[in-house]
Request: fold
Amino acid sequence: MSNRPPLPRLAVTAGEPAGIGPELLIRLAASSLAANFVAVTDRDLLRRAAARCGTTIELIDDDGAPVVERQPGSLRIRHVPLGIEEIPGKPDPRNARHVLATLAEAADGCMADRYDAIVTAPLQKASINDAGIPFSGHTEFFAERASADVVMMLASPELRVALATTHLPLARVPAAITTDLLHQTLRIVHRELRTKFGIASPRIAVLGLNPHAGEGGHLGHEEIDTIIPALDALRGEGMDLLGPLPADTAFVPAQRERYDAVLAMYHDQALPVLKSEAFDRTVNLTLGLPFIRTSVDHGTALDLAGTGRGDPASLIAAAKMALSLIKSAR
Reply:
């Protein structure tokens, strides 16, 4: 009998059946990563994806038993049936409930300690909404499922960026930046940097909302009225906060040495910097959940679906990040 510890159990959802996710999952299974991957999706969907990739896959029904070794090309499966067979590149709203069922199984399984983390492939939000099911995204789904306040973070090996607001029209951002939001968001980021990333004394840079961080009120008052008072209050709790910083200079090398993570006020304020320099190595994380969740930083790539040519680098990076966070949390 082996004395080796069991491999971490990662629930991996395939996302949109007609997208690139199933093929990326096959490529992930072919890697030599030391993880017990449990695919939460349709068994036949993966077989068809493997055929499109020109490879074979060994699918093993998951019985929850510990695994100390995994052979590349093998994959445990928690079967969740499709509503209708997929057509690559053409999402069908009849598969919306399948997609949501995979997310529910992964989240509930983590909260019941059946899995150590969730890794998600991209899904098609429009297809779920077209089925008459209001859906904002993975982050919001998991937050509601776990009854948790969450923060979206994207991280590469060189940079971590959290978002105060996520998928919100730009015109609505200023009103959304409140003292309560900043307090809640920064407390979550600070806690998760300590508990999940193992950073004992996190240093967080906070961006201003306006150009030049408001330039003393000449380019906007959100910094003076909201952001600065919120940061001062949190500094009183012992947080090491830098800013508010002008976004146009916050990412230069000299500044990066001063912080462990950045809080941006809105989606496109900081993510273009991150994705332009590390697109295939950037991972989407949901902070604040009672479990670890990582994801790719790209969409469903419908134009590549079915070709077998999708690049699995981001999904592999997400799996590696999950494994690293599991190790830090233990």
